[in-house]
Amino acid sequence: MRRIAQAYGIGYDAFLRRALGRTGRGARYLEDITDAELARLAVGTGVRIERLRGMNTAAIMRRLNMTIQNWMLTEEGLKALEELNITLGLMVRRTMERRATDRLTINEQLGYKGG
Asked: Is residue 115 part of a domain?
């Protein structure tokens, strides 16, 4: 919607108000857009309703998820996941070592001898 508003040269809130009659706190929350609002938007922009439905966050996230899943099945994706796994493992190990060292340092500063 922001891109459509920008293409028309008006601000996002002004676009929502003029094109869809949306105002107030929930005006920007478009996950619950009605069929009537979509039809009005389709007529005004020339963009098909089906395409407009595909522009919501859930639809975009589904497409992104599918793209990532398909990429992970490729040789390149598997290699990248392996590298990520190694990097994350090193980060976790370093963090745990730092925490253990920090605990020792704090205990030393407090004069705790253990036991």
From this structure: no
